């Protein structure tokens, strides 16, 4: 039987000619990732193993991005644990505040992940690197400790769902809208234990930033990973950012998929996930009148340069509604700097945005924009669970940067297309 | 290994943000985490839970983030085993890796109600509802995972293998 892209990458890293869904394998790891929440637990577990050195100093990335710049004393202690461990073990890819960015935007940007890699990260959105044609998946702290010690991890080979993308998305439709639409279609456990394999001619119309935000949210459908085929755009990105050797894997023509979906991108409308699950989606035409208190643009889903460009394009010469707090957080220092150079920062600040240093911040209700009881936010983040951005009785509506920016102007969830001409 | 306790019952998609909200993740101390376990979904959980109690839920239990703090908090709060129709995959891994027993069983997840008393035999995968006098059979773990559980978690398993 033929193999999917994911299955091929796993087979190669397990030293096997072929693998089958359900098979338990041990695979070699190209990168092991942790952050300031998950790595402290992993470091303690690592120390219990009783070895002094990590398996490879160049294949571990430690990124303090969640509660940094340290939001309180406890967070500072957690960050210090990372810093000390990184220094002691001579970890090459430790990113201090000032170089740090949100891990899933940072690793591809720094060239630490390339096509064909196997990556585990103690963070559920590690699946983001599937945009590069890598197998990457979220694991817990104990798995991270084991990975740092041995350079290997156990996996159950996943079966697959195929998403055949055709057609060209409309002007205001971003990768975010496509993935929200798909999650609405299959549900938050629709891809449980499976890989989401994207294919089809529509992919050519998706930028790398679109693909990152789509692979990022595979976990919101319960998937183990989401993966895109490698094309010219992918290779251009990899070559621009990395000198690491990469490998291109292609699904076999007779690969088996549990189910195939064909999605015509030209029919997708800007899409919003209502509280309190990402699969509770509505098209922008069905949202009705939802007044909001806060707009958050950023995160590992939508804090990249194209996201900020889109927001700036909409907010240029406009003002944030009086009752709305707009918070923008670029995902990395490089994106931040580019936003400054391109004049994006200026446009956003003039529109009334709080323009933040890179951090996970409000995305997980950490700091920098927590919601009070009863408040509503439109966010370009990836989760709208109860209490995700603050008070258990607050609400988060997930949307694209275009919808978020338009909503900041009107003060209610809005279609960016309808803003045109209404200064 | 046996467990016996009173049941706390919840619905589908119990996510890691309600098991332990991110605002408490500035610590990784299990006992401190346990003080806030489930509080956004069931404010009385921590007050009412007794050591050995059992959690039963629907589909996709533990969906959301990769925080190992979620199974850690449940375990430290006193939960002896979680039974669900399905588990989110990272939660499933984490629970095994830290030694929180979990069982997948749709029939048990549907049938068991809050406050039932339930007995579980993990080795055999049998779940007995003492209140309703019914028995359900869960999927036993594959041998590979049994090895990890027998070694008392992944870290001990690795430590044994590295020697
Ligand atoms: S931005 Fe949000 S989803 Fe992404 S890594 Fe940070 S907390 Fe997690």
Can you put this structure into words, describing what you see?
The complex is a heterodimer of chains A (423) and B (163). Chain A has 423 residues and is α/β, with parallel strands linked by helices. Chain A is 30% helix and 18% strand. Chain A has helices at residues 5-13, 39-49, 73-88, 103-109, 141-150, 175-186, 208-216, 232-241, 299-302, 305-315, 333-341, 344-350, 401-410; strands at 24-28, 31-35, 60-63, 93-94, 118-121, 135-138, 152-156, 160-166, 195-199, 225-227, 259-264, 271-273, 281-283, 294-298, 325-329, 353-355, 376-379, 395-398. With 163 residues, chain B is of the alpha/beta class. In chain B, strands 4-3-2-1-5-6-7 form a 7-stranded mixed sheet. The model of chain B has no long low-confidence stretch (mean pLDDT 91). Classes of the chains: A alpha/beta (423), B alpha/beta (163). At the A-B interface, helix 2, helix 3 and helix 5 of A face helix 5 and helix 8 of B. The structure holds iron/sulfur cluster. The site of iron/sulfur cluster has 13 residues of chain A, from helix 4 and helix 9.
Properties at a glance:
heterodimer, A: 423 residues, alpha/beta, Aconitase, domain 3, five-stranded parallel beta sheet, 13 helices, 18 strands, 30% helix, globular, B: 163 residues, seven-stranded mixed beta sheet, 8 helices, 34% helix, 20% strand, binds iron/sulfur cluster
